């Protein structure tokens, strides 16, 4: 007799108690989903992940302190097997790309009907990507009409990919076998070419333009 499939273990990360209660209730009605931990901040989520096995983390992008984008990047760095569903009330282009650049597998808008959240959690757990239909146009628009920019060299692309993965300059230097000062020069060139104000914006623009 085939053993039953274990439920998907979910970590909820939401600072508003009312919203968190609603998410817990929605997920708790599904036999294949189980909320195993809850956190009110990104920092608390990282502490919980060190103790509680989790398959999918549902993150509010607007967390206090460490926001959802940074929390997602930290989770991916420490627990790469954990899938991430980013949850937000806003349909903002930059937020969408920042969330995807941080490693989130799914991006879902908060809404009254729970079906899309359930779909997002299950898709992420299965290793698939999911975008709420109401924000998918941002990604499609970025693919169809990318910003023009000078091409990046292979080395600049390597540096940018490591930036998007959340690595600081010292780690990038060690991974590529170059000096920290050389990394800084590459970063500066990338910022100029992508017309980005900082490393995070560069990663977001690169993802939007299909450079990563």
Describe what this molecule looks like in 3D.
Residues 9-125 form the Response regulatory domain. Residues 145-210 form the HTH luxR-type domain. With 212 residues, the chain is of the alpha/beta class. It contains 10 helices and 6 strands. A 6-stranded parallel sheet has the order 2-1-3-4-5-6, sandwiched between helices.
What's this, in brief?
With 212 residues, this protein is of the alpha/beta class.
Keyphrases for this structure?
10 helices; 14% strand; phosphoprotein; 49% helix; Response regulator transcription factor; 212 residues; alpha/beta
Provide the structure class.
alpha/beta
Query: Low-confidence parts lasting 5 or more residues at pLDDT below 50?
Result: 143-147
Tell me the major beta sheet. Answer: 6 strands, parallel
Strand content: 5-15%
The percentage helix is 40-55%
Protein name: Response regulator transcription factor
Organism: Deinococcus rhizophilus
Keywords: DNA-binding, Phosphoprotein
Helices and strands in order:
Elements lengths: L7 E6 L3 H12 L4 E7 L2 H8 L6 E5 L7 H11 L4 E6 L4 H9 L4 E4 L5 H11 L4 E2 L4 H9 L9 H11 L4 H8 L3 H15 L4 H10 L4
Parallel strand pairs: 1-2, 1-3, 3-4, 4-5, 5-6
Helix pairs in contact: 2-3, 3-4, 4-10, 7-9, 7-10, 8-9, 9-10
């Amino acid at each position: 007799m085939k053993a039953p499939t274990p439920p998907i273990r979910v970590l909820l990360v939401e600072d508003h108690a009312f919203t968190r209660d609603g998410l817990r209730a929605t997920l708790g009605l599904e036999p294949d989903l189980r909320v195993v931990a809850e956190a009110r901040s990104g920092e608390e989520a990282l502490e919980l992940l060190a103790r509680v096995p989790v398959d999918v983390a549902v993150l509010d992008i607007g967390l206090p302190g460490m926001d959802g984008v940074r929390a997602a990047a930290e989770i991916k760095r420490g627990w790469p097997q954990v899938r991430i569903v980013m949850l937000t009330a806003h349909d903002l282009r930059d937020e969408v790309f920042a969330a995807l650049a941080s490693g989130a597998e799914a991006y879902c808008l908060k809404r009254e009907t729970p079906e899309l959240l359930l779909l997002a959690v299950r898709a992420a757990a299965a290793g698939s990507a999911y975008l709420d239909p109401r924000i998918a146009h941002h990604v499609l628009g970025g693919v169809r009409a990318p910003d023009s920019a000078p091409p990046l060299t292979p080395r600049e692309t390597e540096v940018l990919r490591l930036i998007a993965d959340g690595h600081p300059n010292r780690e990038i230097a060690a991974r590529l076998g170059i000096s920290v000062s050389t990394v800084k020069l590459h970063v500066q060139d990338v910022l100029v070419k992508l017309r980005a104000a900082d490393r995070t914006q560069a990663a977001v623009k690169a993802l939007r333009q299909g450079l990563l």
